[in-house]
Amino acid sequence: MKITRCESNPIVTPGLYDWRKATVFNPAVIIEGDKFYMIERTAGSLDPFQCFFGLLESEDGVNFKHVLDKPIIHPEQFGFPYGSIQDPRVVKLDDTFYLNYALRPCSMSYYPTGVGIPNNSKPVYPDGWGEEDVHWRTRSSIATSKDLINWEFLCDTTPLDINDRDNILFPEKIGGKYALLRRPEEFIGEAYGTEKPAMWISYSEDLITWEDPILFATVEQEWELKKIGGSTPPIKTDKGWLVLYHGVGPDHIYRVGAMLLDLEQPEKVVARAPGFIMEPETYYEKFGLFIPNVVFPTANVVKDGLLYIYYGATDTAICLATVPLDELVDYVIAESEKG
């Protein structure tokens, strides 16, 4: 499968403002009107590693500029002054933008090793923050907006006693219900039907109360042996919902896979390519400030039949790759049939 990396990569890099001088990565992107809008995850330092969301816009999906010189979301506005807000994914239903995000009530400090997951420590915060285990546990939530600038908290989508990341809404209701991809890390073992963190789906009539999750995709290949999870909002095609997902292998490398889910019952996998469609290849995907060997898509949009894939590279910068949507869908189906 030929995925074309943008010649301008990385297209968004750290700097310019204090709140994004250390790193930018894992964005949400949506097309509204004639413009691409990007919500970037940023950090001003690694000690502590407190993350914010900034907003950028672009005419062509490649050259982005900031809409504001300050974050559109700071963890403090949701009640967590020392927290870290992470990995936005955005969809629009009717006239409202829905933003999935992960949030840790207290920010960790990180010390890159250059060979894998960085070392970390827990800073000391005032007023009792950091004294409870739940303060260091990631929860997933939804915020809403009418203009991509002013956001309000809507709900937590997962229980606060587990780490449940990679929550991603489908861009439309299915069977009259909202649908949500999930990756609960603690749902492993014989009772759950998977030995490694896997992909689940939940449904809700009101976005507030969610039905029990359904397991639909587990680890199958060596390149995803440690865990898998949803990456980008599903794209509706006439052959199924296209879902890009990430897999982490025993070599700690983050790669990208693709599958198609049934349009009416997305808990059913229609096709799944056994091999990955992207892996770290370039210098900026193999070496960076934070974690090496990472391509981590969190956004995809379609314009003129071309799928724009936006991804974080080594948790350091934001990059873009493109592929004709129909070609990728046909590839997933063909590879799935081969086994």
From TrEMBL:
<keyword id="KW-0326">Glycosidase</keyword>
<dbReference type="InterPro" id="IPR007184">
    <property type="entry name" value="Mannoside_phosphorylase"/>
</dbReference>
<dbReference type="GO" id="GO:0016757">
    <property type="term" value="F:glycosyltransferase activity"/>
</dbReference>
<dbReference type="InterPro" id="IPR023296">
    <property type="entry name" value="Glyco_hydro_beta-prop_sf"/>
</dbReference>
<keyword id="KW-0378">Hydrolase</keyword>
<keyword id="KW-0808">Transferase</keyword>
<comment type="similarity">
    <text>Belongs to the glycosyl hydrolase 130 family.</text>
</comment>
<dbReference type="Pfam" id="PF04041">
    <property type="entry name" value="Glyco_hydro_130"/>
</dbReference>
<keyword id="KW-0328">Glycosyltransferase</keyword>
<dbReference type="GO" id="GO:0016798">
    <property type="term" value="F:hydrolase activity, acting on glycosyl bonds"/>
</dbReference>
<protein>
    <submittedName>
        <fullName>Glycosidase</fullName>
    </submittedName>
</protein>
